[in-house]
Amino acid sequence: MNKTLNITTAKIIWSPTIILGFFLVLFFIIQIGSFYREQYLIKEYENNLNLLSKRIKELEINLSKIDSLANIENHLLSRNFVKPEQIKYIRILESSVVSK
């Protein structure tokens, strides 16, 4: 009877311990999987960020080329502006002053 009582007591003590240990191992495996998934996503986001940064720099360079002074003449000619042959300024005489 005493031996049976020891076996029953051992089952009562060890059964929850084994079940708890199993769930802790399962939880640990899930946490490690989540950790490595997040690390992978961080690397992917950093790669995308680097690619986007390079693309932005390329677009800024292209924009500066388009807006440069060297291309203004071509832009004006495409808008049907005519290049002036001679510039004439208006002369204002000193005696002609406007006052209120």
Labels describing this entry:
mainly alpha; 100 residues; rod-shaped; 0% strand; 2 helices
Describe the fold and architecture.
There is one protein chain. The chain is mainly α and 100 residues long. 72% of the residues lie in helices and 0% in strands. It has two helices and no strands. The chain has helices at residues 2-66, 72-78. The longest helix has 65 residues, at 2-66. The radius of gyration is 41 Å and the shape is rod-shaped. It starts with a helix and ends in a 22-residue tail after the last helix. The model has no long low-confidence stretch (mean pLDDT 84).
Question: In short, what is this structure?
Answer:
This protein is mainly α. The chain has 2 helices and no strands. The radius of gyration is 41 Å and the shape is rod-shaped.
Task: Assign an overall shape.
Answer: rod-shaped
Q: Work out the number of β strands.
A: 0
Calculate the terminal CA-CA distance, rounded to whole Å: 125 Å
Q: What is the string of helix and strand elements?
A: HH
* Averaged pLDDT: 84
| Fraction in helix | over 70%
**What ranges have pLDDT less than 50 throughout 5 or more consecutive residues?**
none
As an assembly, this protein is single chain
The value of Rg in angstroms is: 41 Å
Q: State which percent range the strand residues make up.
A: under 5%
Structural class, please?
A: mainly alpha
Describe the biggest sheet? none
Given the structure, what is the number of helices?
2
